[in-house]
């Protein structure tokens, strides 16, 4: 089974009840292909000479997909915006910035390729069951794009009050999504970490340099330095860690409900396999491929039992995190 062979194989449409009315916020529909929500809005921000605080959206949409969502811009132009990978259509005005509370959900249109004939029949036979009982839905690998080679979550160190390590992970650790400039700047930070005056001299003007400038005068106040990170970035780090906790809880409950399910990270890219192994190890995250593969296994699970067990695991969440090994509280 193959997923997301081309962007059109994964279509996401945001469902919102927000309608144009009147007010200082311009309301737009953004349709994009092969670009992430933050990257698209950054292009709009630069092109229209806006501040980041003027732009709002209700949720991130997949990069490797065709997606549609609403965006608001405080005092934004009453005009469309066109780009090779996305466009904005001005729908009218509204009285407040759009947020998560405005979203009723997302509609997905997914194309699966390279299915065997018996795979098709099995999926079709399970659709009624899924519609009636729901589906334990894992967060996908896109939620964990902020993870570097260490596989340490920034927010985990943040919760532990290890602000220096959290800051290092956020601004210095290599990430496969970095462009050439970011790779260069991060290498400087890794080489000169703690030597703040020398580090400042070599860095380009950026949010990293602004943080280092603060550290030149306050070399040990990593808590305040971490707070200087963009609020949106800090939100992404928190979401990644929260999502990993959810996946771990869901994995634990799935294993407890059925001996047939085991999630295992397959390689460094985050691909996963389903195995029948006895040791009940829990994955940190799984891929879309593995999540969709669960369609074949759902009839073996008692769904009501799954949710009862999930609630029990939620109450013991700190115990699971501690065994990760991560702790939120001392």
Concise overview:
By secondary structure, the chain is an alpha+beta fold.
Describe what you observe in this structure.
With 330 residues, the protein is of the alpha+beta class. The protein has three domains: 107 residues, TruD, catalytic domain (Pseudouridine synthase); 116 residues, no CATH class; 76 residues, no CATH class. Helices cover 40% and strands 17% of the residues. The strands form three sheets. Strands 2, 3, 4, 5, 6, 7 and 8 form a seven-stranded mixed β-sheet that branches. A two-stranded antiparallel sheet has the order 1-9. Strands 10-11 form a two-stranded antiparallel sheet. β6 and β7 form a beta hairpin. The relative contact order is 0.12. The C terminus is likely disordered. GO terms for molecular function: RNA binding; tRNA pseudouridine(13) synthase activity. Keywords: Isomerase, Membrane, Transmembrane, Transmembrane helix, tRNA processing. One of its GO terms (biological process) is tRNA processing.
């Amino acid at each position: 089974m193959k997923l997301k062979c081309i962007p059109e194989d994964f279509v996401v449409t945001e469902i919102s009840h927000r309608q144009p009315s009147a007010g200082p916020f311009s309301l737009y529909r953004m349709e994009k292909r092969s670009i992430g929500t933050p990257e698209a809005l950054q292009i709009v921000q630069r092109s229209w000479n806006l501040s980041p605080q003027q732009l709002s959206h209700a949720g991130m949409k997949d990069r490797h997909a065709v997606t549609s969502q609403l965006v608001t811009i405080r005092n934004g132009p009453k005009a469309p915006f066109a780009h090779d990978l996305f466009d904005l259509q001005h729908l009218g005005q509204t009285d407040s910035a759009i947020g998560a509370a405005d979203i009723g959900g997302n509609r997905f249109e997914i194309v699966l390729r390279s299915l065997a004939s018996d795979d098709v029949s099995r999926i079709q036979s399970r659709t009624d069951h899924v519609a009636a009982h729901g589906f334990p839905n894992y967060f996908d690998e896109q939620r964990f794009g902020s993870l570097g080679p260490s596989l340490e979550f920034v927010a985990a160190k943040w919760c532990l009050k290890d602000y220096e390590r959290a800051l290092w992970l956020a601004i210095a650790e290599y990430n496969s999504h970095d462009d050439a400039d970011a790779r260069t700047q991060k290498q400087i930070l890794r080489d000169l970490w703690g030597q703040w005056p020398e580090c400042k001299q070599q860095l380009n003007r950026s949010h990293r340099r602004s943080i280092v400038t603060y550290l030149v005068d306050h070399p040990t106040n990593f808590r305040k330095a971490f707070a200087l990170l963009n609020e949106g970035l800090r939100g992404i780090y928190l979401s990644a860690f929260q999502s990993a906790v959810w996946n771990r809880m869901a994995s634990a409950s799935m294993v407890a409900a059925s001996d047939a399910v085991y999630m295992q990270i397959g390689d460094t890219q985050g691909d996963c396999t389903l195995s029948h192994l006895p040791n009940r190890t829990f994955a940190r995250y799984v891929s879309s491929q593995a999540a969709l593969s669960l369609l074949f296994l759902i009839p073996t699970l008692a769904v009501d039992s799954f949710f009862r067990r999930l609630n029990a695991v939620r109450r013991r969440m700190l115990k699971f995190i501690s065994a990760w090994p991560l702790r939120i509280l001392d």
